[in-house]
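Page header: ASSEMBLY MODEL / four components / 400 residues total.
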Amino acid sequence: MARWEPDARGRLLHAAADLFAERGYEATTAAQIAERAGLTKTTLFRHFADKREILFQGQDALVALAVDGVAGAPAGSTPFEVLHAGILALCTMHPAEQRANQRGIDALLSSSPELQERAVFKRSTITEALRGSLADRLDDGRRAAVLADLGVRAYYGGFAVWIASPVDGPLADVVATELAAYEAAVGSLGSATLASSAAR
Amino acid sequence: MARWEPDARGRLLHAAADLFAERGYEATTAAQIAERAGLTKTTLFRHFADKREILFQGQDALVALAVDGVAGAPAGSTPFEVLHAGILALCTMHPAEQRANQRGIDALLSSSPELQERAVFKRSTITEALRGSLADRLDDGRRAAVLADLGVRAYYGGFAVWIASPVDGPLADVVATELAAYEAAVGSLGSATLASSAAR
DNA sequence: GTCTATACAATGATAGAC
DNA sequence: GTCTATCATTGTATAGAC
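Prediction written out in full:
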């Protein structure tokens, strides 16, 4: 028999979600979250590095998804196809059932500068991991970097559209549309540049 | 006659630079900085929003530089020429004499996760401002976003090279070289995409 | 309008007991 | 793993001094 109730982490997450929804992020203290979960502040900080991390639960898995997605792209893929593989792998983290949850988290994020800073950092971590794995595949570091930025933009942009949309549908569809639009924008940029330099 | 010693902000910056160099960022407390400057903690936090901001002194001006640089690009410029104008404007913030200082700041940044997070946030603020002003000029939002990412990469990448380089020279030269390299990478990406889609 | 004094709330770390 | 307890530090708030 366990000497304490199981799933402390899950209880903390649940308590935090409730309290953040009730009073907002800043008005909720770490001690209050712990108390509602039937635990203490010390235990909370054993499970989460800091208060902000509670809201980014599971985000760390995105890095591995992107890297594995890129690594798993078939040989002979074009650079954009490799990128697609990495970005669409990210979408598997967000099933349609969680869309309502994500809306709530999104609202919290925009309420606190502290959380926005952390969100930007997470985004940059994903971008950097993606850039690294693309660089392994593409042997041109700068091309890999540009693709990583572009892919992450499509992912986050698609995510925002998906969250805001009234109709249910898979995130991957929206993101794929975004990716195609960015691809077109880069294509026109490339050809515009070539045309203008050819004109000289 | 002043009733107190002037230039409190300057003294705080100087005291912080000394203490950070002596003991590192984390081992220096806000109270110690204030004390060495002959002030109190309260005053320090009147001049800086938080401890991290002490190390990003002046960074906020970069946003205006980028925006004004883009806005000042001559009519009829190509998208890349507009971008050049914005990015090279950023370089005016960093005269060659400050290169040694920047090296010290750079070392501190890599010593603390807290500072890295703030640095990433500053970078994203600059990117976002640049993206906005490029979007005004270029009427294609996604193209503007890709260019902003690319330009900021050239700026930060060039900055790192400039910091590390043993030879003295203007930052703008290094950054211009980076920009050209990224431009070439995007050009080849665009034509590769066009070629591969044409081949179908 | 800038600084000081004091008190305060909250984060996060640490040590030792169960 | 969790708890109690204590602690340093950040950052805020208030009221007053010059």
